[in-house]
Design goal:
There is one protein chain. The protein contains 15 helices and no strands. The chain is mainly α. Helix 5 (76-96) packs antiparallel against helix 8 (165-185) and helix 10 packs across helix 14. The termini are far apart.
Length: 405
């Protein structure tokens, strides 16, 4: 097995920054191509939206186990194999043009992306320590958030210039180039291999999931990001079929959505000293108010600019809620950092995939009021969970037990 050489530290670090955003690229780059894919693959909107759900479900499930597996079998070989399979699956989608093969390849991409992302995060911890690790970890969060912002923007131009297959050719070549970079300049830096112990892992999962603030948070995170995914699944059809704009405009709307999420994350960090539950109630209340205004306005004024403005505001508070609870969940059990990391990402993605696909399947979103209604429904679900959590906090505090730390 090839061992990591410290003389390639700089290019190995750049490689991490280029691979971590792969999950965002894989979900968002082909969003502007949804309408053409529907036409070319002879399916309906739900059939195309399923390609996103397939990825999210497999990605979420794989994240639950990936951390333990990269600790048991190493990072390097798993990342290389995953990059190769991801590249081949992208080319298969672009060449074969069969909706059922696309579903299968998207499941494979979800699995491989989970191992790539988890493997490279772990690799960063392997090669850096102390303040340098903290510095690069903070940069990693910023780099990751850039993918959902830039991917649809890139995808819009690819769609306009070359058609729907171009996004998958892009993903295939991207992964192939990164495979060669990893092959030549990376290596195995991990030395503390541990046996994969199922019983101890199950025991840890039970301990973490029994905490109501943590388990409720996973659902809240999933529903919060589910709103973003509902937008991602529906926006291409709204922008291109309802408002009659090009795929490039879909990319711009997604860009604005991403800026809103990032702005909300910054807002969440700036209010880090405020009471936890109060911040959450504030965020979801603002979402409900804005969504109701979006619904009412859509009956009288419905154009791309009003629609995009409401999306920005809603996703700002999405980002706020997500940042507040995501940070809380990651730090809730410091003694089980690996498990909580995998659960927070993986389980919430599963909730996201189920909730988003259920909403778009039931509502058949075709206009601004329909989109607003989806936000109202998901926000009310979050509000109900927050009331449930607050009641638990009150009961535990009366008995001397602490829930919210």
């Amino acid at each position: 097995m090839k061992v990591y050489d410290k003389k390639y530290e700089r290019i190995s670090t750049i490689s991490i920054f280029l691979l971590i955003p792969l999950s965002g690229l894989a979900t968002d780059i082909f969003l502007p191509s949804f309408p053409e894919m529907q036409e070319m693959l002879l399916t309906d909107s739900k059939g195309i939206q399923m390609t996103l759900s397939c990825f999210l479900v497999s990605y979420g499930i794989s994240l639950l186990a990936a951390g333990s597996l990269v600790d048991s079998f190493g990072r390097y070989k798993l990342v290389l194999a995953s990059l190769l399979l991801f590249s081949l699956s992208s080319f298969a989608i672009a060449i074969v043009h069969n909706i059922y093969l696309i579903y299968a390849m998207r499941v494979l991409q979800g699995i491989t992306t989970a191992f790539i992302v988890v493997g490279k995060r772990a690799f960063l911890v392997d090669i850096y320590k102390g303040k340098k690790l903290q510095h690069y970890t903070s940069l990693l969060t910023i780099i990751w958030s850039m993918a959902p912002i830039s991917a649809p923007f890139i995808g819009g131009y690819l769609q306009k210039g070359f058609g729907w297959t171009s996004s998958f050719y892009f993903l295939g070549f991207y992964a192939l180039v990164m495979l060669f970079v990893e092959w030549f300049f990376s290596g195995e830096a991990f030395t503390g291999f541990t046996a994969f112990k199922r019983k101890s892992l199950v025991s840890t999962y039970k301990t973490v999931l029994k905490a109501p603030d943590f388990s409720t948070g996973l659902v809240i995170l999933g529903l919060t990001y589910g709103m973003v995914m509902v937008f991602a699944m529906s926006a291409p059809f709204l922008v291109e079929n309802h408002f009659h704009f090009s795929p490039v405009v879909t990319g711009y709307c997604a860009l604005l959505s991403g800026v809103g999420i990032m702005s909300g994350g910054i807002l969440g960090r700036s209010l880090s000293t405020y009471p936890f539950l109060r911040k959450l109630f504030f965020g979801v209340a603002m979402e409900i108010v804005i969504a109701l205004l979006m619904f009412g306005t859509g009956k009288f004024v419905s154009n791309i600019y009003v629609f995009a403005g409401f999306v920005y505001l809603l996703h700002l508070f999405n980002g706020f809620l997500y940042n507040v609870y995501f940070t809380y969940c990651l730090t809730r059990f410091p003694e089980y950092a690996g498990v909580t990391n995998g659960l927070t990402s993986g389980a919430s993605y599963l909730v996201t995939s189920v909730a988003s696909y259920a909403v778009v399947s039931v509502l058949h979103i075709q206009n601004q009021p329909g989109m607003a209604l989806s936000y109202v429904i998901l926000s009310l679900c979050i509000l109900a969970l927050l009331f449930f959590l607050r009641n638990i906090v009150k009961k535990r505090s009366l008995s001397g037990k602490k829930v919210i730390s």
